[in-house]
């Protein structure tokens, strides 16, 4: 879940369409972007690649393999930190994000670092790229858990990937959906059904409009989605909480991280001749 909850919203679990999800989450990320970058920017690193709140870095995990000379798309790229890392490591990293304000931060970091990430505003369910344009597509807590029409998003990834291309993404570990989104003791007592896929929704009290949405799929759902989408799953990385790490990020904390996985990183490739 997101690590901010404005006073004026109420939390519900209810069905929401792709359109509602996008219309809520774009403006929500626009509003939140300045605070997000001020709070987490130093931890992420301007040209750093962090896979989740546990702080595991691509420098160590090497989920994407050698990106040198590769065409690499990041879906839900925010301020482009990960794609900047790709560029520094010799790949042709490109970013896509729903939020105009997040992309403005990306431009700011392009100028500050001298490493520019070509980026486009768009949505994961309608990627503005030609078929077979990329060797690698990835998301680090980007887009996927904000999308309702997830099969369409995976179809788009499959379309823009070259045969054999790699698709890797991190999301909130699906088992976290059983627990309240609380970094403390309260976040350790299961209180919701793991199998309840009803989206998490914040509704603006004043207008009654949907203001923020996250979608839940179980581990089995992801395996079936990837298989149906033409992918072969090669790994599911569940990063452990590092011994010395004591940073709270929303519902992620040392107290919970030592007991339950907070992040899941799926690693797959597109079936084909690659
Ligand atoms: C948690 S941030 C992660 C960004 C970046 N990877 C990072 O680590 O800071 C999630 C990003 O996904 C973007 N996003 C949400 N829904 C999206 C969608 N449907 N298509 C593309 N991007 C989306 C948000 O605007 C936001 O920048």
From TrEMBL:
Residues 1-31 are annotated as: Disordered. Residues 73-169 form the Methyltransferase type domain. One of its GO terms (biological process) is methylation. Gene3D superfamilies: Vaccinia Virus protein VP39 (3.40.50.150). Pfam families: Methyltransf_11 (PF08241). It comes from Nocardioides baculatus. PANTHER family: METHYLTRANSFERASE (PTHR42912), N6-ADENOSINE-METHYLTRANSFERASE TMT1A (PTHR42912:SF93). InterPro entries: Methyltransf_11 (IPR013216), Methyltransf_Superfamily (IPR050508), SAM-dependent_MTases_sf (IPR029063). The keyword Transferase applies. GO terms for molecular function: methyltransferase activity. The keyword Disulfide bond does not apply. It comes from the Bacteria. Keywords: Methyltransferase, Transferase. This is Class I SAM-dependent methyltransferase. Coiled coil: none annotated.
């Amino acid at each position: 879940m997101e690590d901010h909850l404005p006073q004026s919203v109420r939390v519900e679990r209810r069905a929401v369409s792709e359109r509602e999800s996008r219309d809520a989450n774009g403006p929500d990320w626009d509003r939140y972007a300045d605070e997000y970058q001020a709070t987490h920017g130093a931890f992420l690193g301007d040209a750093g690649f962090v896979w989740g709140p546990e702080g595991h870095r691509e420098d160590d995990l090497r989920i994407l393999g050698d990106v040198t000379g590769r065409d690499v798309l990041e879906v839900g790229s925010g301020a482009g930190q990960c794609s900047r890392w790709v560029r520094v490591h010799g790949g042709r990293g490109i970013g896509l994000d729903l939020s105009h304000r997040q992309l403005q931060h990306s431009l700011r970091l392009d100028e500050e670092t001298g490493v520019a990430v070509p980026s486009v505003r768009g949505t994961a369910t309608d990627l503005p790229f030609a078929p077979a344009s990329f060797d690698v597509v990835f998301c680090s807590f980007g887009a996927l858990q904000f999308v309702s029409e997830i099969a369409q998003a995976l179809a788009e990834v499959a379309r823009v990937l070259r045969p054999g291309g790699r698709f890797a993404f991190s999301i909130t570990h699906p088992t976290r959906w059983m627990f309240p989104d609380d970094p403390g003791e309260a976040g350790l007592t299961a209180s919701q059904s793991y199998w309840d896929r009803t989206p998490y929704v914040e509704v603006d009290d004043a207008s009654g409009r949907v203001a923020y949405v996250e979608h839940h799929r179980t581990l089995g759902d992801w395996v079936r989605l990837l298989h149906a989408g033409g992918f072969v799953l090669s790994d599911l990385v569940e990063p452990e909480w590092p011994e010395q790490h004591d940073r709270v990020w929303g519902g992620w904390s040392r107290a919970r991280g030592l007991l339950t996985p907070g992040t899941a990183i799926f690693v797959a490739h597109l079936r084909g001749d690659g």
